[in-house]
Amino acid sequence: MDYYSRQISKLIEELSSLPGIGSKSAQRLAFHILNMPIEHVEQLSSTILEAREKVRYCQSCYTLTDDALCPICKNANRDHKTIMVVENSRDLAAYEKTNKYEGVYHVLHGAISPMLGIGPGDIKLKELMQRLQEDVDEVIIATNSSLEGETTAMYISKLIKPIGITVSRIASGVPVGGDLEYIDEMTLLRALEGRTEL
Ligand code: ZN
Description:
Blueprint: H1 6-16, H2 23-35, H3 38-54, E1 56-57, E2 64-65, H4 71-74, E3 79-86, H5 89-97, E4 103-107, H6 125-131, E5 138-141, H7 147-160, E6 166-169, H8 185-193, E7 196-197
Parallel strand pairs: 3-4, 3-5, 5-6
Antiparallel strand pairs: 1-2, 6-7
Helix pairs in contact: 1-2
The structure holds zinc ion (ZN).
């Protein structure tokens, strides 16, 4: 990238390190930023910085939030006895968009993957088991239908079943390996309603 000055190259390099941003997109974004009014650039960078500094895990469900408890866990109208287990905060948002799920969530922040060396201790599983000591009726496992998601679902159901809490798995209408956030709301709703007890 010798054709650009050092500062421009550095900006392009930083942008292209973000997921989904190839070198062409990074160049386009870099020149867009360079042409933006300086106040706008300041606002963008301070928003990124503030979000990074203030956003943390919800003490109960471990989704990313900027308060001790996220708005869903704080909401007394939600059914706190039904917990849906998802891989990340984006999956939680996908289910929230259906506007039909009234329970609460638990965000694992990953899935078990022996191939990548990600074990049960590397995701928020211990935290889920701790929550189950409270009054819980059902745990709905909504991990992805990828190999990692299925492995995680099986592992969790084996842990929970002996406690006597109902464990169910969302229906496999969700395409294999499909990221939950890219699936439309109707498909998610059908998957949720067609869940089967494990
Ligand atoms: Zn929460």
